[in-house]
Amino acid sequence: MRGSVFRVIGGGVGLGLLAAVGVSGRNGAAQADRGEIGAGPDDGDDLDLVMVHVVCRHGARTPLNTFAGGHDLGTKWLVCTEEKRNSLEADVEVKGVNGDPPGHVHNMDATPMPLAGGCFPGELTDLGKTQLYQLGKRLRKRYVHGASGGEKLLSPRFSSDEVYVRSSFQQRAVESAQSLLAGLFPAESRPEQVPVHVMDGKKETIFPNVLGCPRLMSLFLEAKKGWAAIEERDEIRDRLALLADEESPGIAITHYFDNLKSRSAHGLIIPEDVSQGLFDDIHRLATTEAAALFQDPVALRLSIGPLWKEIQNAHEKILKNEESEGGKRHKLVIYSGHDTTLIPMLLSLNAFDEKWPEYSANLVIELLRSRATGEPLVRFLYNDQVLKIPGCGGKEACQYDEFKNILADVSKEIQPEDCFDKQAGDGPSVGTSFN
């Protein structure tokens, strides 16, 4: 591996965003309990399922970076085939949000430097498509057929009255939504094109939006100063520097983690000098650095508060029997996002397990209602396992007031002055990492 330093060549809003700021869970935060999905919430069978939100990371992808010189250890990324694209994706029509024109989808094919083998940096692979297709099948089993501890919520055929899908502007996220939809609604049960909604980049709420909120980037850069205090950080960076013939201060942990994680997921060669122990250390340090960006409550609110607010607003509308966007009463809302969507969401619930969200990781938020009292409750699932959230009294389903209280600070409405310095002018000069 000597001499094979990393070089960023692809854009991204996940690891790419963290790399742009140079990238521990919150110290002392209570951890959520995880358990297998059973027949239903432990409050008994006197609950009806009202609405479901699914927030997922895109599937496995090629790395956003490669080794210096473009040689990439001779690896050929033969993992992006047209056959899988045709068989594991639903055709979609990209639409806007709230009456706005659709946001511009960042097309990986426009990247000037494809990887050896034909894939592009950050491209959803055959494995990634399969992961989201399987997730869609599991959601169909749970919410169409009522199996796996679920309840029959959706019609067997796709209906835009029931299902709403939103994706970030990254092509891998849009294609992940396509594969999820193909699993959730087989070809015979969906129209020729399914609408997927993409928001304008400056307004996006699916990930921490430094383009629309310059103050967020400032907070991230401030948080980065605290990385020096992370235990064993210098030691791990020094070990990597020896392997790569690179100065330790120039080591970007997330670059190494991104490339190695993608290789591992696809069964491709990993540099022989990277032992399992070193890989585990890189994973731990990358995750600790990422989580540290959100330790400031303001940074956490600006990063993920708008998305939580959207989810709560949707809950309130359906509980009041009001219509959502387009005069619909959606029962299932899907957000196709990134690791930088899930990390702050889990942190805001005090449920982050200090492990980087895997490809296709997903957080499911189920809105329930008691038949006896009419009171709403919320249940969380993470990667098909129940999350018992601290602040909910150890119960499997939170009272809705408990849920709102947990997120009371995070979901406060964001005002323009929260994001823009009064002297900064009309638009931000940061955020260009979102490419």
TrEMBL record:
Transmembrane segments: none annotated. The keyword Signal applies. Pfam families: His_Phos_2 (PF00328). Residues 1-25 form the signal peptide. One of its GO terms (molecular function) is phosphatase activity. Keywords: Signal. InterPro entries: Acid_Pase_AS, His_Pase_clade-2, His_PPase_superfam, Histidine_acid_phosphatase. PROSITE patterns: HIS_ACID_PHOSPHAT_1 (PS00616), HIS_ACID_PHOSPHAT_2 (PS00778). The keyword Magnesium does not apply. Belongs to the histidine acid phosphatase family. PANTHER family: ACID PHOSPHATASE-RELATED, LYSOPHOSPHATIDIC ACID PHOSPHATASE TYPE 6. This is Acid phosphatase. It comes from Rhodosorus marinus.
